[in-house]
Amino acid sequence: MSVYPYRSACPKSIWRNLINAARNEIVFAGYTNYFLWLEHPNLAKVLKRKAQQGCKIRFLVGDPESEVTHRREEVENVPLTVSTRIRITLSEIEQLRDVPGIEARYGDEHIAMSVFRFDSEMLVTPHLAKLVGHDSPMLHLRRYQDDGLFDRFAYHASELWSNGRDAWQQP
Questions:
Q1: Contacts of 45 (CB under 8 A, 6+ apart)
Q2: Burial status of residue 41 (CB atoms within 10 A of its CB: 0-12, 13-18, 19 or more)
Q3: What is the pairing mode between strands 25-29 and 113-118?
Q4: Is residue 86 classed exposed, middle or buried when 0-12, 13-18 and 19+ CB atoms within 10 A define those classes?
Q5: Three-state secondary structure along the chain?
Q6: 10 Å Cβ neighbour count for 169?
Q7: Tell me: the pLDDT tens digits for 17-65?
Q8: In this predicted model, what pLDDT tens digit does every residue of 96-147 receive, in sequence order?
Q9: I need a labelling partner for 110 at 20 to 30 A (CA). Which of 18, 26, 129, 135 fits?
Q10: Is the C-alpha dihedral spanning 154, 160, 166, 168 positive or negative?
Q11: Torsion sign across C-alpha atoms 106, 54, 19, 41
Q12: At how many degrees (to 10) do helices 12-21 and 43-52 cross?
């Protein structure tokens, strides 16, 4: 539907419209998902309401303690580290922990790509070498056919989710 040279070039209204329009499934498979909380005030309240209306919501984030995360921090070499950004997201979604229909998992295999699904639309960010997510390009996709680009990325996100570890599991 659209292509943006930078994730940050995608209008916030696109994100807001996709979140609000989703009825069945929302997947936030970004390694940190940190920007969501900055750019979308009251996101937790909106997601809680969506879940109460029957929308399944999943967060897949990197493990802040993993070796993959620590290596990425060395590559990015920025003051607001990857693990800190993940911990901010974990703190934000903690208030959603007991809401039926909302789940969170750790997965380190998606460090190079973020997939955000909203029913039959999707935002995909392939992360470019040494760049943080907002500096990488983004594709806005809609599902038009079986086994098209949308289904390929949906499969990718589904596999990552299947291999993820429960972020809310008690030690």
A1: none
A2: exposed
A3: antiparallel
A4: buried
A5: CEEECCHHHCCHHHHHHHHHHCCCEEEEECCCCHHHHHHCCCHHHHHHHHHHCCCEEEEEECCCCCHHHHHHHHHHCCCCCHHHHHHHHHHHHHCCCCCCCEEEEECCCCCCEEEEEECCEEEEEECCCCCCHHHCCEEEEECCCCCCHHHHHHHHHHHHHHHCEECCCCC
A6: 9
A7: 999 999 999 999 988 888 888 888 889 999 999 999 999 999 999 999 8
A8: 999 999 999 999 876 678 899 999 999 998 877 665 666 789 899 999 999 9
A9: 18
A10: negative
A11: negative
A12: 20
Tally the residues of the chain.
Answer: 171
Position 144, amino acid: Y
Q: Which backbone phi and psi does 43 adopt, to 5 degrees?
A: -60, -40
The position carrying tokens 């594709």 is 139
